[in-house]
Design brief:
Elements (H helix, E strand, L loop, with lengths): L4 E4 L2 E3 L2 E3 L4 E2 L3 E2 L4 E3 L2 E4 L3 E4 L7 H12 L6 E3 L5 H4 L2 H7 L4 E4 L1 H11 L5 E3 L5 E3 L4 E6 L9 E5 L4 E3 L21 H16 L3 H13 L6 E3 L10 H12 L4 E9 L4 H15 L5 E5 L5 H10 E8 L1 E2 L2 E2 L1 H13 L5 E8 L5 H12 L2 E2 L4 E4 L4 H24 L1
Parallel strand pairs: 8-9, 9-10, 10-11, 15-16, 17-18, 17-19, 19-22, 22-23, 22-24
Antiparallel strand pairs: 1-2, 2-7, 3-6, 4-5, 7-8, 12-13, 13-14, 14-15, 20-21
Helix pairs in contact: 5-9, 6-7, 8-12
Family: In the N-terminal section; belongs to the zinc metallo-hydrolase group 3 family.
InterPro entries: Flavodoxin/NO_synth, Flavodoxin_CS, Flavoprotein-like_sf, Metallo-B-lactamas, ODP_dom, RibonucZ/Hydroxyglut_hydro, Rubredoxin-O_OxRdtase
Protein name: Flavoprotein
Length: 403
């Protein structure tokens, strides 16, 4: 018997889990897998909303057929063309040759570029509607959340927002599909990692999309994204997170990231962390950039206001694993953080000076003077590290008192 779930009246979850793929977009670790969520509305007219990655098309098609039997599919709504969701469009077309593909103008440019020209297009614009019988769909264009063609589909009568990648995250759906069936602590971390690495660069466009939904005054009872849990009990929770993350709002805490060959730069990281703790900071995360994938580091940098970066010198430059960290931060255009810098030089410098150049470009508020020890930290450098910790803790605690 097929494992299908009814989201609400005649709206079915027909998504699949992927536990095999190691890297999402061939970049981001999928330690806990990922789900590709797709939905089926079984009404007078049958509509599929988004599909799945091509490696999963059989499981997806089996679910669709399991629900509608001999009926045909009338519409395939394409909210997003990234191949983790468009990978089974051809399979749907082959199985249901009369299906009408529904998307916006850009959708079909992407479709033809990826899969070649098809026929039966229905091009919608912002605010257009489509009647299925007891269900009525309304479309909202939400460009750059996080591709140019991205849109959301709202089912008016049951108040379900099919939101594409927005509000979704990594992690397979292991039995539980809905927010009230799963451990939200785990999914919130994986949603923030998805947001900060995949969508976060487009925070201004996320704000624009949220504003559009607010101005449309639509009542959202259920959020059905293309990854992660379906929010039916507390959809405002994930909307609030998205609002905060896209405004670069933070929690009190410090992320210390370092690159260290033989442990001397690491000593400075541990020392700064201890001093922060003595000052009363409780959320402190230390990451060895060579050990932890940058996606996890960025996710915590998205969360906390304080960032302290350290590097040894490597071939007259920054330690290579730290290059990935500063590149990702700059690429994300993240704002509103405090920044401390430390590290070591040996037969050459290059680590701390490169971090200082990064500080000039990123324009975060610099905390204290940068500290650079010769090969290993001595009393004078530890003293400077303590000053960074003191000043950073003071600023964070002052903001706590304001709140
Ligand atoms: Fe889940 Fe942008 O694809």
């Amino acid at each position: 018997m097929l494992n299908t779930v009814e989201v609400t009246k005649n709206i079915h979850y027909v998504g699949v889990n992927d536990r095999e793929t190691h890297l999402f977009e061939n970049l981001w670790p999928l330690d806990k897998g990922v789900s590709y969520n797709a939905y089926l509305i079984n009404d007078d007219k049958v509509a599929i909303i988004d599909t799945v990655k091509n490696t999963k098309m059989d499981a997806f098609m089996d679910k669709v057929e399991g629900i509608i039997g001999d009926k045909s599919v009338d519409y395939l709504i394409i909210n997003h063309m990234e191949p983790d969701h468009s990978g089974a469009i051809k399979a749907v077309r082959e199985r249901y040759p009369k299906v009408m593909l529904v998307g916006n103008k850009k959708t079909f440019e992407f479709l033809e570029n990826f899969y070649g020209k098809m026929d039966n297009y229905y091009i919608i614009d912002d605010g257009d509607t489509l009647d299925l019988g007891e269900h009525q769909l309304k479309f909202y264009l939400t460009p750059m959340v996080h591709w140019p063609e991205t849109m959301m589909t709202y089912e008016v009568n049951n108040k379900v927002l099919f939101s594409a990648d927005a509000f979704g995250g990594f992690g397979t759906l292991d039995g539980g599909i809905f927010d009230d069936e799963v451990n939200l602590e785990f999914y919130t971390d994986e949603i923030r990692r998805y947001y900060s690495n995949i969508v976060g660069k487009y925070g201004a466009m996320v704000q624009k999309a949220l504003k559009k939904l607010t101005e449309a005054a639509i009542d959202i009872k259920i959020i059905a994204p293309t990854h992660g849990p379906v929010w039916r009990t507390n959809p405002s929770c994930i909307i609030d997170y998205y609002d905060r993350w896209s405004k670069a709002q933070t929690q009190e805490g410090v992320v210390i990231v370092y690159g260290s060959m033989y442990g001397n730069t690491q000593k400075m990281a541990d020392f700064i962390a201890r001093k922060l703790s003595e000052k009363g900071i409780k959320n402190i995360r230390i990451y060895d950039a060579s050990k932890t994938h940058v996606s996890y580091i960025i996710s915590d940098i998205w969360r906390f206001k304080g960032v302290v970066l350290g590097s040894c010198a490597y071939n007259t430059g920054l330690f290579p694993s730290m290059e990935a960290v500063i590149h990702k931060i700059e690429n994300s255009q993240l704002k509103n953080r405090y920044l401390g810098i430390f590290g070591t030089a040996s037969w050459s410098g290059g680590g701390v000076s490169t971090l200082n150049q990064f500080a000039d470009r990123i324009k975060w508020e610099k905390i204290g003077e940068s500290v650079e020890a010769k090969s290993s930290p001595k009393a004078a450098e530890f003293e400077m590290c303590e000053k960074i910790a003191d000043e950073l803790a003071e600023k964070l605690i002052a903001e706590r008192e304001v709140l």
